[in-house]
Amino acid sequence: MDAKELKEIRKKLGLTQAALANLIDVGTRTVQAWEYNDQKVPKTVGEFLKHKLTENILDQKNKSVITMDVSNKDKLTLEEMAIFCLGYQDEYEKIPSVKLFIDFHRNQAKAELLEKHIILNGKKES
């Protein structure tokens, strides 16, 4: 994958450089270096993004519009939005950026649990 293709796919996925960096656990400057062709884009990153783009396209074809009536509200809290989204959890989790966010945080949680497990097992052996 070249710099131009990386940037195009990132934009099609609706991600900023910082969001992409956070998703794949690299620094924002690394993503910038890839996009400015200062560094080569790793093959695994390219394959991951192409896969996510394909998922995104398929999800867009199956996308239904869900609206929230906020005409009677002056303000909308994040909690109210979250409660609304929980009512449409299946549809909400199909949104590519939400899916990426959830996958990323699940993987982080798994890594933290694994790390704690290793540390605890290491203390038992001492």
Write the layout of secondary structure elements.
Elements lengths: L2 H10 L4 H8 L3 H8 L7 H19 L16 H9 L2 H4 L3 H30 L1
Helix pairs in contact: 1-4, 2-3
InterPro entries: Cro/C1-type_HTH (IPR001387), Lambda_DNA-bd_dom_sf (IPR010982)
GO molecular function, one term: DNA binding
Pfam families: HTH_3 (PF01381)
What does this structure look like?
The protein has 126 residues and is mostly helical. It has one domain (3-62, 95-125): 434 Repressor (Amino-terminal Domain) (Orthogonal Bundle), CATH 1.10.260. The protein is built from 7 helices and no strands. Helix 1 packs parallel to helix 4 and helix 2 (17-24) crosses helix 3.
Order of helices and strands: HHHHHHH
Unreliable segments (pLDDT under 50, ≥5 consecutive)? Answer: none
What number of domains? Answer: 1
Query: Per the principal axes of the C-alpha atoms, what is the gross shape?
Result: globular
- Which band does the percent of strand residues land in? under 5%
Q: What attributes characterize this protein structure?
A:
single chain; mainly alpha; 434 Repressor (Amino-terminal Domain); Lambda_DNA-bd_dom_sf; DNA binding; HTH cro/C1-type domain-containing protein
Concise structural overview:
The chain has 126 residues and is mostly helical.
